[in-house]
Specification:
Ubiquitin-like (UB roll), DNA polymerase, domain 1, about 15% strand, globular
């Protein structure tokens, strides 16, 4: 079957078997390996991409279901050498350890901030609850999203927890 869609702003197409998962099309046909394959059952969230402005687990849908859609992967976030505010937040607030879950966490967080640029801690935690991390306690991930929200709003990000007076 032939599929066509927009990925990271560019038109792409390819031949796939009807059973090809979107995550495999992204990784194997488009060679965008930032979208990780974890559980292949929609549980871990490592494969999260933004499809038509909504976060989706690309291991839980077929490539043919994305026909005509617009998809953003982790590779499509940075622009002109500048990190997306969420990517910057993960860097600045140490929101990652091994990095396996990070692309999915970032994509879920980007989708949240596109809908609400000033989420509460509870809203941040709710938005990433479909993304599992085995390395962190999620605290720094939440702080990374708070940092990114401030950047998106044009504000100075809050100081990190480890600085005096924070």
């Amino acid at each position: 079957m032939q599929v066509s869609m927009t990925v990271n702003g560019g038109e792409v197409s390819g031949d796939v078997e009807a059973r090809t998962l979107l995550v495999h099309f992204i990784r194997e046909n488009l060679h965008l390996t930032g979208t990780h394959v974890g559980c292949e059952s929609g549980y871990c969230g490592a494969c999260t991409v933004i499809l038509d402005s909504k976060p989706v687990k690309s291991c839980s849908m077929l490539a043919v279901q994305a026909e005509g859609s617009s998809i953003t992967t982790i590779e499509g976030l940075a622009s002109n050498g500048e990190l997306h505010p969420v990517q910057e937040g993960f860097w600045e607030r140490h929101g990652l350890q091994c990095g396996f879950c990070t692309p999915g966490m970032i994509m879920s967080s980007v989708a949240l901030l596109e809908e609400n640029d000033n989420p509460s801690e509870a809203e941040i935690r709710h938005s990433i609850e479909g993304n599992l991390c085995r390395c962190t306690g999620y605290h720094n991930i939440v702080k990374a999203v708070e940092y990114a929200g401030a950047k998106v709003r044009g504000e100075e990000p809050p100081p990190p927890d480890w600085e005096e007076g924070s």
